[in-house]
Design a protein that fits this description.
One of its GO terms (biological process) is apoptotic process. By secondary structure, the chain is an alpha/beta fold. It is built from 26 helices and seven strands.
Amino acid sequence: MNKYAAYCASDFDANEGYNTKEHKMNAHSRTSSEIETVPYSDILPVFTPQFCKDFEFKDVQHFLKDLLKPEEFRYIAKEEGKAQIFHMLWVLQNKSDADIMSFLNCIAYDYKWIVDDIKNILREHSPVTEEYLETLKRMRNDHQNFTDFNVHRTKPFMKLRAALRSLNPKIGLASVVLLGELGSGKKWLALDVCSEFTVLQAMNFKIFHIDTKFCDSPDEDLHALNTLMLKLNPNHHFTLEGPSKISYKILHLQEQLRELLKAKQFLNCLLVLTNVQNIKTLEAFNLGCKRLIITRNKKVSEKLSTKTNKHFNLEEGLSFTEFRLLLDKYIKKYDWREFATTNETDIYYLSNGDPYLLSIIAKHLREKKSNWFQWKKYLENLQIPDKKFKRDIETSLEVLTQEQMRRYAVFAIFPHCVGIPVKVSQNHS
């Protein structure tokens, strides 16, 4: 048995070190109540900075081959630098406590200080850890589909993470603009990055999400600003006094919000604006704080100067590996690899890696194994829109009313060749 196997197979004690003969209490052992409330998978992200700074996967990779599935090992080994660390942590976050304990035992020989830090936090949570866990819990409750089915998209994740952590409206970048076509996965990418520990920490664990998809008038802008005010101060009292014109009400509320955002607790907060469709809404939320602006409207993106705003265009779809991870998320009833054969590859390339389309396909494959070949046939007959066609769609969407947008959202998932029954259409008219 080599030194790594020996240490990983042993039990670790904080004071006694490793002992394979006596079954001492493991350094990572916790009380039953702690195990029930906080799994290792939730604690590990707190140590992202330590892993990124000090850890080298190659130091322990020859042993971890025995601990990880072949596809998991390849998923980690193919990356380099910080991306490799994130792949490793993402794999571990889907593991049981027992597997993570084995991993910690493996790395303790070379990285005792990291293991000791994890041990100490497991015994007694720091205020930062508590705040992270509370924030994580809220985000999971608010976005359950995202929690269950999100797949990490490595390249855009790393780019957006770096951009958000560099925001500093006082001396540099004020906003990050995430531009992407309909169904490109902008919102879930933003949620993924905004739930990452170091990003949350950079915002003092204060990230506020406002959906502006209905903001096509001053009244709706005011409503969205009111929503933000209540997120910042749930006890805020809206008086009937003051200006009567909507434009003046907006100005008055903006002044209140800017003043509130100067408070110490909100100094580094991030405002995430999703579905920003017009410049007036963009300007309504110019409140002096850090912003992540998510839009498919190029005019919104072009309005913001590149000198003080970071522009990020989400053009790429899912990678083939990410599509396979998506299938793992959706399909639990059977081993999809036994049924995929070459259909898996064909479906991916026929879809051009489109995140929205692949999510729909994965959801259907979850229910019926026989759908693999059928979906391949559908995609072969379905014309996937090219860039020009998508631009034409975007231009058309900009002139739709909110009611027309609602109908579009209902029926847009169907290809042009599908005949929709009149009764179904009437139910949504």
